[in-house]
Amino acid sequence: xxxxxxxxxxxxxxxxxxxxxxxxxxxxxxxxxxxxxxxxxxxxxxxxxxxxxxxxxxxxxxxxxxxxxxxxxxxxxxxxxxxxxxxxxxxxxxxxxxxxxxxxxxxxxxxxxxxxxxxxxxxxxxxxxxxxxxxxxxxxxxxxxxxxxxxxxxxxxxxxxxxxxxxxxxxxxxxxxxxxxxxxxxxxxxxxxxxxxxxxxxxxxxxxxxxxxxxxxxxxxxxxxxxxxxxxxxxxxxxxxxxxxxxxxxxxxxxxxxxxxxxxxxxxxxxxxxxxxxxxxxxxxxxxxxxxxxxxxxxxxxxxxxxxxxxxxxxxxxxxxxxxxxxxxxxxxxxxxxxxxxxxxxxxxxxxxxxxxxxxxxxxxxxxxxxxxxxxxxxxxxx
Length: 383
Hints:
alpha/beta, Rossmann fold, Non-ribosomal Peptide Synthetase Peptidyl Carrier Protein, Chain A, 2 domains, two-stranded parallel ribbon, 17 helices, 51% helix
């Protein structure tokens, strides 16, 4: 994958010998020029170009084919690598599939696709390494296990498994002398994750801006990995931002969210789809504003007060923008979960009128917080 090849490039000054596992078989080397000429933007062309650059920089890079979730394929690939390159000094497990989407809308098959590379892949590696233990096994986890993420339940679970696995196996020597799970914050490249936001261009742009500002560079990532391996603990977080900053980015509570979500112009909105609920127009200013925000963000020409947000085409990503707009307008710090709990205009309007259900912030009494919210709502209405 892209991140593995980037780390390989950072290792170039050491002139390493690398076995790179790829789930697809690359064309034979005598066809590489043809592939680059005929399909210059294809996945094979990208990998071939990276391999050639590595070799030109003095890296002995050998591609091997293996589906990391297949124990037999992984064992065969590691045996072949051992025969061609000699004993392995370490294994880095970077495989992953981006999650995304509300849990209640996820099928078992889609969740399995996210869980498999991390869980089945780690177990397959462990089975192979029991035959030939190595000095180091480094698992690439994610800081989503600490800060959460809107619609990333399966991805968080997969990475939590890596963290637990490292805690259970480090120091045992059964598969490696050192087993460490590194829970990374966002890297600057991570193309596979930004591709997961293709249907939400405004939020994708916000993610890219965040990565450019606070993402981990390739050089910083290798430096962090070196420090983590030397430090000793089996589970470490490696972030390019403060924990508060990363949490705001992950949960959509940062100040950038609303500015990034521009909405759909009225002329491009689609008709309201057929729903199980009859259309009922908003009945007061609160419901009208909530409906207008939904129309703007969902690209629907009209929204009834009992229309379910997710039946209108809402997604967890669009929900971030909706919550940010409503928080700004009403002066109430709504959480993304509020939209799940109250997925209609009428139900969300009840929360606006009586926000007592909000959990008080640390250090703030419930009565004081309730008073602040009511004063903010009153001020908004006067304006």
